[in-house]
Amino acid sequence: ASSRAGSGRFGGAAATAASPMAASVDDGGDVDDGGAESDNYSSDFDEEEVARRAIEAEKLRRRERAAARRAKRDKEAAREEEKRRKQQQRRAADVAETERERRKKARARREQKQREKDAAMARQMMLETQRWGSDSYVGDASASGGDDEGDGGDKRGRRARGKSKDDAARKRRAKRGEAREAA
């Protein structure tokens, strides 16, 4: 027992074994000290476990924060994408509207030109009709040999054309004036 007194680990057991009466308790003392050592080991293990769990928890928190950041980033990206898509739709709608307006104006211009063309053609045809009509009646009058008969012929022609007597007389006077100037 005295040889074991030097070892610090079993100091308590050596002191107990010094009296011969307590020799049988020696093993029990060893067992008790072993229990104390086991407690120390257990507490060390607990500290390691606590530290390991703290590290795991920190890792988990970091992962969760990273996931939250990613989700936030994805949400913002989706919002930006939606905004961009709406802008593109608006631009496309504006372009389509502008194109519609352009076509509408172009169609209106074409129709206006066509109307002007039609009106000019109608005026030209009316003038041609009047000119040729008056020439033929004058020709009829001169061929018949006299103004009286010519007037009669002209009158019939005027009624057929819906013209007034004054118009025909005005035209005849104008033609006579032209003939005089030419002579």
Overview of this protein structure:
The chain is built from four helices and no strands. By secondary structure, it is an all-alpha fold. It has a domain of 88 residues. The longest helix is centred in the middle third of the chain and has 119 residues.
List keywords for this structure.
183 residues; mainly alpha; 4 helices; single chain
Furnish the topology, listing elements before pairings.
Layout: H1 11-17, H2 26-144, H3 147-161, H4 165-182
Helix pairs in contact: 1-2, 2-3
Number of helices: 4
Q: Strand count, sense and closure of the main sheet?
A: none
**Strand residue percentage:** under 5%
Shape: rod-shaped
Mean pLDDT, to the nearest integer, reads: 72
Helix content: over 70%
**What is the radius of gyration computed over CA atoms, rounded to a whole number of angstroms?**
63 Å
Strand segment count: 0
For the terminal residues, how far apart are their CA atoms?
A: 173 Å
How do the helices and strands follow one another from N- to C-terminus?
HHHH
Structural class, please? mainly alpha
Unreliable residue stretches: 1-38, 136-154
Biased composition (Acidic residues): 27-36
Region (Disordered): 1-183
Biased composition (Basic and acidic residues): 50-84, 91-101, 109-120
Biased composition (Low complexity): 1-26, 133-145
